[in-house]
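Supplementary material to the annual report.
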Amino acid sequence: MNRVQADSIAEQAAHWIVQLSADDEHTRASAHAGFAAWKAQDPLHARAAAGMESLLGQVHALRGPSAGDTRPARAALAAVAPKRRRHLAAGVAAAMLVLAVAGLAASDRPAYLLADLRSPTGQWRTHTLADGSQLTLSSGTAVNVRFSKGERHLQLVQGEILVEVAKDAHRPFFVDSRQAALRALGTRFTVRQQDDATILSMLESKVAVQLPQHAGTVVAAGQRTRITAAGAGPLEPFDAASLQDAWRAHQLVVDDRPLPEVLDELARHRPGQLRYDRAQLDHIRVAAVLPLDDTDQALQLLLDNFPQLRVRMLTRYLVMVDAPVRNPQKK
Amino acid sequence: MSAAQPTLQQQVHALYSEHHGWLYGWLRKKLSCPHSAADVAQDTFVRIIASRDALFGMREPRAYLSTTAKRLLVDRARRQLLERSYLAELALVMEAIEGAPSPDEILMAVQALEQIAGALAGISARAREAFLLHYLDEQPQAAVAQQLGVSTRMVQKYLVQALLACRQASLIIPA
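Predicted assembly:
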């Protein structure tokens, strides 16, 4: 069979299939009979039709997982649909797609990808900087290193770092967050960049917090502060030794915090999505030590301690946590 | 040139031993995950070996390897984007329905979506929309026609185009 014949058979098959789902009932009925006869005529006919029918079967099956709701399938197809006709730019588009996806995986901020030092989700990285300072990046963290003759600057793009500053009397050491410049007066501290705040926890010695148009604040070992655009918040005591242990062992130590906060933290250490309704879970308070390098186990521990929780793991990359209220005895 | 002509196996062996380490290193720099880099490197060789013609007279093996690997990276990125978009939306829908689809069901849906996306990539946006409105959303042909502002005959034309594209796509998929 040559190509022209094959194309013509395929076209006939497609025409029949379209008639099978015509709006008019008579058309449909006669298409059914006609199509069956046409397929019986020649095994090549049946074969041409089978490929298309099986794909349509797959389209129909897409309705299953979402109980007839086609939005998930639509969203997926829209995400990869070709954008207009730009054949020449296909290479560029492909490169951008890679960037976009890498960005999705690690962070929604392109700055993450461009940073000097990065740690992917779920991984810790420790670096010794040019001056001998030790820098540990927690999961999903990005830092730019800007050392000059006169000053040392780390720009915290996102995530959380543990810094152990090497002494250098002639070159002050700064961590620059979105909210403030933190000048190290001593050695060891952690800095966490949140969307609208920076959290500084002092493990050893002191740091001076400098904000534009605010008086400086000095934070000492064992103290923690939350810095927003409005300035440094009150200094709160915390357990420096256990925080240090937690960093070393990749653990999350929480003492009486709302569950959504804990889940936020787990989500930061977990590839894929962790979904939950903050309002529904906000009343659950957690005191726990959870492994951050095994978030599956962390979720299991939460589940063991809070039987009212339900964890649905659709895939490794999509986990939903909620506390169903209806039918408590029904599984 | 009869005696000097190396066998396919020797070619593959030479290509692999000379360039696998380099390709892996190249991919490591592009991907943060060492397992993914190893996977893609492996897939690249498999892809090249499958198209055996390419093996003979390969002038710039590294350029060829990296081009093939890049294509695989793009495929992979597209697949991830598709899967994530599907899961994100599914999670929203799930909040409204009882029970949960099994991982198998989800995997099958994602694979089906990949195939469908591949099939529909080559046709016009309108033909694609007609196909999805009719076969996915299960709207009557007349309703599709109304939404797209065309005649029902035109909708049928679009559907035929889409079905033919499905056939093309299934022919292109490598054995």
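The longest strand of chain A covers residues 152-164.
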